[in-house]
Design goal:
The complex is a heterodimer of chains A (115) and B (115). With 115 residues, chain A is mainly beta. In chain A, 0% of the residues lie in helices and 51% in strands. Chain A has no helices and 12 strands. In chain A, a hairpin with an 8-residue loop joins strand 10 and strand 11. The chains are: A mainly beta (115), B mainly beta (115).
């Protein structure tokens, strides 16, 4: 069965500092991987996704993530944090074995940005 | 174009009552998903519709939960004999056709509180 773990339920960074949110997954086959962001009182929004090909994926708002099969990881990074990045971030995995894109979400990491 | 909409945004009910939660997906999206998000958790899959049919309802917690999508567009999640443990945010998402790594577009959710 697929699962997703996110190390650190809460991460704080200073404005302008590197953002690193960790995600590890378990899957019997190479999965599709996603990062979603949830701003306060808003719906989840896709940041980026890995499907196939290049393992470094660039998303919106300056975020990127790298798929590392050997480490079963898909960590999310941003070189310089902005106040507007404060939100809840969810890593998710979709098992290619299913006939549709059933997505399993991790527990989330709350990002705070300190001025 | 319009995104996924959900009504009501908030619903407060008493234990034992019946509730209906509505989801309007993006026009033309054949795939529709319901998730439940408890405080401090990631979204938990409930049910997936492809067109009018429930292709996967394995996430529904018990037979008090039921969902329909009679015309392949709007969907209603129905909860009978509500319990305090049903309190959560119920999220709806839609995607173009549910195949492969389609992006799922989420609505803002319905916050259900069972007193």
């Amino acid at each position: 069965a697929q699962s997703v773990t996110q190390l650190g339920s809460h991460v704080s960074v200073s404005e302008g500092a590197l953002v690193l949110l960790r995600c590890n997954y378990s899957s019997s086959v190479p999965p599709y991987l996603f990062w979603y962001v949830q701003y306060p009182n808003q719906g989840l929004q896709l940041l980026l996704k890995y499907t196939t090909g290049a393992t470094l994926v660039k998303g919106i708002n300056g975020f990127e993530a790298e798929f590392k099969k050997s480490e079963t990881s898909f960590h999310l990074t941003k070189p310089s944090a902005h106040m507007s990045d404060a939100a809840e971030y969810f890593c998710a995995v979709s098992d290619r074995k299913t006939s549709y894109d059933k997505v399993i979400f991790g527990p989330g990491t709350s990002l705070s940005v300190i001025p | 174009g319009a995104g996924v909409s959900q009504t009501p945004s908030n619903k407060v009910t008493e234990k034992g009552k019946y509730v209906e939660l509505r989801c309007d997906p993006i026009s033309g999206h054949t795939a529709l998903y319901w998730y439940r998000q408890s405080l401090g958790q990631g979204p938990e899959f409930l049910i997936y519709f492809q067109g009018t049919g429930a292709a996967d309802d394995s996430g529904l917690p018990n037979d008090r939960f039921f969902a329909v999508r009679p015309e392949g567009s709007v969907s209603t999640l129905k909860i009978q004999r509500t319990e305090r443990g049903d309190s959560a945010v119920y999220l709806c998402a839609s995607s173009l056709n549910g195949n492969g790594p389609d992006t799922q577009y989420f609505g803002p959710g319905t916050r259900l509180t069972v007193l």
